[in-house]
Design brief:
Largest sheet of chain B: none
Structural class of chain A: mainly alpha
Largest sheet of chain A: none
Number of domains of chain A: 2
Oligomer: heterodimer
Radius of gyration of chain A: 23 Å
CATH architecture of chain B: Orthogonal Bundle
CATH class of chain B: Mainly Alpha
Number of helices of chain A: 18
Radius of gyration of chain B: 12 Å
Order of helices and strands of chain B: HHH
Distance between the termini of chain A: 16 Å
Number of strands of chain B: 0
Shape of chain A: globular
CATH topology of chain B: Non-ribosomal Peptide Synthetase Peptidyl Carrier Protein, Chain A
Strand content of chain B: under 5%
Helix content of chain B: 40-55%
Number of domains of chain B: 1
CATH superfamily of chain B: ACP-like
Chain lengths: 476, 83
């Protein structure tokens, strides 16, 4: 059930009508049932995985808070993390690593016939396992009191607007809003509707039209001409942004109309002046998750290791930072999917971030507009790795960038789509950046707002792609 | 060289590190928002560690890097706990 489908419109209308008339506790139970129905509409069997993750983390959270002995606390945390990683490992990574292992030993002349599970990937698995794990870790770190009510906690794990593709919430934010009674003010409903509408436009007008440009280029066999590669990678950089930011906007909008504020997931990432800033603006809920639960603890542990601790400050910090960055970015890349191109995508960004920090005295002195343009192209290089079907394809495309254009240049239609979408998206992003917020429309007089809403509706009717193309991040 | 754990010494030490990392930035108001990147945050944590104040993830909150005042308060509080 996609947010931009008729089924979802009917589903949400029914849920919302009931939600508005029920008291707080009943609202939570309704949302839980709706969330399980929403998830079950993809594959009801995989609801068992959500229930397993929920039950284990609820039990571990209660146990950790009640336990006095540090060993018992860390043991329970280990059970929580191991369960979630086991779910993720089995359903997302097992077949990939089994195949990679067989390929590796095959290169040394050994034959192996690994056992493959051939399981369909449960949608949203990387999102809800990470969200659930963060709860246990926060309880362990004493930053969050454990949930008292199992059903409230179950709703925290399965809340349908963000269950499939985030934002990956924290217990410190979302759980509190679930437990406490919510006020649904008119402003929330209006802003929620605006966010949903803008996300809808991003998805059906921009992302799905750009997909018509991107897909044939990446589906074609090599060799690639430089113009095709440029067109493909520029279009994909816009497509993935509109697709994922569109989904996030819709999720945040739906939750907001119910009086629940989800965290911001995108803050004009393509206007970031450097790659480190890009990651503070792109998929914020995931990058901050890795910062809090992977990067920082690893860095703190590394800097105190024997051999590192005795180094001078700059070296101690530099060595710890470089190792931590490589590990964290590689894992962040692999989080996206079971493929070495995702790992390489992470390492590419680790190299770019490290390079920025050690050259920033020069980089930061350049005019801001040049920084933004250069950084956008640096990000595009990463998208080429990310979108390629395989590493050989990525290599062929990078080689294509340096070659001459092929005799058949890109079509005028494809160029027009890229140009129109690019100008529209960057204009809106620039406006939001100037106002320093996404809800800039609400500062404008009513007639202008209504005119823009009518214009957006015309855009949807005229150019909307209603092929029910799933969101890119659903595969993760 | 070990730095004495006083408010003034910490402010001077951290200001030096932050200004070294942020091109063209001069920190005049310790209560002003810092907007630090993770590289500088980790540098500050390493510097604090050299002053025998080791913050772990149970005690660390990234909101503590909001301003120099908040950061210095955190390090001093942590040093007190350690003693």
């Amino acid at each position: 059930m996609l947010f931009h489908s008729l089924q979802f419109a009917v589903f949400f209308a029914l849920v919302y009508a009931l939600y508005r008339i029920l008291p707080h506790r009943a609202q939570n139970r309704l949302l839980l049932l709706a969330s399980y129905f929403f998830y079950g509409s993809w594959n009801w069997r995989y609801l068992a995985l959500i229930l397993l993750s929920t039950a284990v983390d609820y039990g571990c959270g209660r146990g950790i808070a009640a336990a006095g002995a540090p060993r018992r606390r860390s043991g329970l945390l280990a059970i929580s993390i191991a369960t979630n990683l086991a779910i993720l490992g089995t359903f997302k990574y097992y077949d990939f690593f089994a195949e990679s292992f067989a390929d590796l030993v095959g290169n040394f002349g050994f034959a192996s016939e690994p056992y493959f599970l051939n399981l369909a990937l449960p949608v949203g698995i990387s999102f809800y396992t990470f969200q659930s794990m963060s709860y246990s870790i926060d309880v362990y770190r004493r930053k969050l009191a454990p949930a008292r009510n199992f059903w409230d906690f179950a709703l925290f794990v399965a809340f349908f607007p963000q269950l499939i593709a985030g934002p990956i919430e924290r217990g410190t934010r979302l759980l509190r809003q679930i437990v406490e009674p919510r006020n649904i003010e008119r402003e929330n409903v209006l802003k929620g509707a605006y966010l949903f509408g803008w996300g809808f436009v991003l998805k059906v007008v921009f992302a799905d039209n750009l997909a018509l440009v991107v897909d044939p280029i990446f589906a074609a066999p090599p060799p690639y001409g430089s113009l095709d590669v440029l067109l493909g990678v520029y279009a994909f950089s816009l497509q993935i942004f509109c697709d994922f930011a569109g989904y996030s906007c819709m999720a945040i909008g739906i939750a907001r109309s119910m009086g629940i504020e989800l965290m911001e997931n995108f803050r004009r990432p393509y206007l970031a002046p450097n790659i480190a800033e890009f990651w503070r603006r792109w998929h914020i809920s995931l990058s901050s998750w890795f910062r809090d639960y992977v990067f920082s603890p690893l860095f703190l542990a590394l800097k105190n290791r024997r051999g590192v601790r005795s180094l001078p400050l700059a070296w101690r910090h530099g060595v710890s930072f470089a190792i931590t960055l490589i590990v964290a970015e590689f894992l962040l890349g692999m989080w996206h999917g079971a493929g070495w191109n995702y790992g390489l995508f992470g390492l590419y960004h680790a190299g770019a971030i490290w390079g920025y920090y050690y050259t920033r005295r020069g980089w930061d002195r350049m005019p801001r507009s040049i920084q933004i343009v250069l950084n956008f192209h640096l990000v595009c290089g990463g998208w080429l790795l990310f979108r390629s079907e395989s590493l050989p394809q990525a290599a062929a495309m990078f080689a294509g960038l340096l070659s001459a254009p092929l005799p058949s240049p890109p079509s005028v239609a494809a160029l027009s789509i890229l140009l129109c979408c690019g100008i529209a998206i960057f204009s809106v992003e620039r406006m939001q950046e100037k106002q320093q917020q996404g809800l800039w429309l609400f500062r404008w007089p009513s007639p202008v707002r209504y005119a823009l809403v009518v214009f957006a509706s015309c855009l949807v009717l005229a150019f909307g792609e209603f092929g029910n193309r799933p969101f890119i991040y659903f595969q993760f | 060289m070990p730095v004495e754990l006083t408010r003034e010494a910490l402010i001077e030490r951290f200001t030096g590190l932050i200004e070294e990392q942020k091109v063209g930035f001069t920190l005049t108001d310790p209560s002003a928002p810092l907007d630090l990147d993770s590289f500088t945050m980790m540098l500050i944590l390493t510097a604090a560690s050299e002053m025998s104040v080791d913050l772990d993830m149970e005690h660390l909150d990234f909101d503590d890097f909001y301003s120099l005042d908040v950061l210095v308060d955190k390090v001093l509080a942590e040093a007190k706990t350690a003693i």
